[in-house]
Amino acid sequence: MKRINLLGQSISFAIAALLINHCAAAQQSNKINTGKNPIIKNKYTADPGAFVYKYAVYLYTGHDEAPAGKEGYTMQEWLCFSSTDLVNWKEYPVPLTVKDFKWAKADAWASQVIERNGKFYWYVATEHATISGKAIGVAVADIPTGPFKDARGSALITNDMTSKESKMMWDDIDPSVIIDTDGQAYLFWGNRKCYYAKLKPTMTEIDGEIKTIDLPDYTEAPWIHQHNGWYYLSYASSFPEKIGYAMSKNINGPWKFKGILNEVAGNSNTNHQTIIDFKGKSYFIYHNGSLPTDGGSFRRSVYIDYLYYNTDGSIKRIVMTTEGVRSADNVK
Ligand code: FUB
Fold first, then answer.
1. Do residues 289 and 299 lie in contact, with contact meaning Cβ atoms separated by under 8 Å?
2. Which of 81, 101, 170, 294 gives the lowest tally of CB atoms within 10 Å of its CB?
3. Centre of ligand 1 from the C-alpha of residue 260, in Å
4. What is the rounded CA–CA span in Å between residue 151 and residue 143?
């Protein structure tokens, strides 16, 4: 009888623990049933960077907080969302802000998260407090939704590291990271100049020299991805921005410019893309300024549309829609 009671007690404890965990998880994320574009309507989101991890897409964005009528970016934090079907999204408590980097002073600009060996590395562009100009930092977490903490205590890239190439104060922005099939990680970034460098296996140190890539009408927002044996380097070109892309069989090039992928995005002079494969389809995630009533270049919103490859590996031009995508669970 005593044994039965003990078993009963253990089961009750186990059920209670499960319920507590479930409630805690529910409190931690906020379900946003969006459907259609833009996918996040409760706030302005910009500069999407997404990746797929364990049956879900994790989407990281900047947060446009400029009040209506203000021209200029007001961005102090980065946001995190997830979805298992690309229609229903969860929002998590703010996992990273400029203040988390003691060496930074302003501007939560474009970013990307990538996983390596069970750790999640978040590369961000922000303004350095003591070295003039923009810089790239890296934060780390044990789970994709954070909280994230500064992985170095100092910037990974500072403006003085690229001063031979560019005298601009904001050329060191818009990080994009890839881990190649041989395990070598690379960081791509840059405004007006497209830079890239190897990363050490720690993911928090540059390995060797910083190189540049010549791309027609390159403005900013490089996004590096691989698909079916090709490397793709997409980027914002001209201004207002369109998204162009180049292809190569080798991550070190040569890169062949293949044309425009996405046109100028409605009501926004920037366009900033991320490209993923999920549950058998490919997706183009970007921003425009269409969210009523104050959307615009400094109050942007994230959209998702389909991306289609041609048989030769090139990509069909994106069709931007307000309908957005269907549930990825109903894909035929
Ligand atoms: O959001 C600030 C800047 O605007 C980003 O770093 C660029 O890519 C552009 O979207």
1. yes
2. 294
3. 19
4. 14
Q: Is 181 exposed, middle or buried (0-12, 13-18, 19+ CB in 10 A)?
A: exposed
Measured between alpha carbons, how far is residue 124 from residues 12, 48, 108, 121, 135 in Å?
A: 45, 12, 7, 10, 8
* Rounded Cα–Cα distance for residues 302 and 9 (Å): 49
Identify the residue whose tokens are 């100009």.
133
Residue in this structure with the two tokens 């979805």, named with its chain if needed: 83
The closest alpha carbon to 157, from 114, 80, 101, belongs to 101
For ligand 1, the distance from its centroid to the CA atom of residue 47, given in whole angstroms, is 6
Counting ligand 1 atoms within 8 A of each CB, the residue from 44, 45, 47 with the most, and so the one to mutate, is: 47
Q: Could you report the per-residue pLDDT of 263-310, keeping only the tens digit for each?
A: 999 999 999 999 999 999 999 999 999 999 999 999 999 999 999 999
pTM of the complete model? 0.91
The full DSSP string for 174-213 is --EEEE-TTS-EEEEE-SSSEEEEEE-TTSSSEEEEEEEE
User: Tell me, what's the pLDDT at 25?
Assistant: 41
Give, for 22, the enclosing helix (H) or strand (E): helix 2-28
**Nearest Cα residue to 231 out of 307, 173, 178:** 178
Query: 47 CB less than 6 Å from ligand 1?
Result: yes
How far is Cα 143 from Cα 158, in angstroms, rounded to an integer? 27
Closest residue CA from atom 9 of ligand 1: 270
